[in-house]
Design goal:
The protein is about 75% helix and about 0% strand. The protein has five helices and no strands.
């Protein structure tokens, strides 16, 4: 059975806004690390992945309705087709899992190193997506 995703008309302003939001979220995550707010830094980093991926999907007129759907559609439309390095799907998946733990597992502890790694991967991801979209 084929999975059908909503198609939309690509809107360059919306795409750009998603990229800008992703960059803002990275910046916020970096500040939160300095303040030792690792849970919130992980959440911001995850949403940088989310916004950058939303921008990328919109370039193809694709829209996902859920977080899992976004990750699935990203894999189908960009990773499996060879347009995006598979490591970025792994980074995104790990960030999603970490964000869920940060938000819902109150006894879970996060280290500075672990958090910095997720934020670093998010920045690399956003930079890569921006290059794909704008050819920079």
């Amino acid at each position: 059975m084929a999975i059908i995703y909503p198609k939309v008309t690509p809107n360059p302003k919306e795409i750009k806004q998603h990229i800008e939001l992703a960059k803002q979220r990275i910046y916020s995550a970096q500040i939160l690390i300095k303040e030792k707010q690792y849970r919130d830094a992980i959440s911001r980093a995850y949403y940088a992945f989310f916004d950058a991926t939303s921008a990328l999907l919109l370039t193809k007129g694709l829209l996902a309705k859920t977080h899992s759907g976004l990750l699935t559609l990203f894999g189908l439309a960009f990773v499996k087709t060879g347009k995006i390095d598979p490591k970025f799907a792994r980074f995104f998946r790990k960030a999603k899992e970490a964000r869920e733990e940060a938000d819902y597992e109150v006894l879970k502890k996060f280290s500075k190193k672990e958090t910095e790694n997720i934020v670093k991967q998010a920045k690399e991801f956003v930079d890569s997506i921006e290059k794909v979209i704008y050819g920079k």
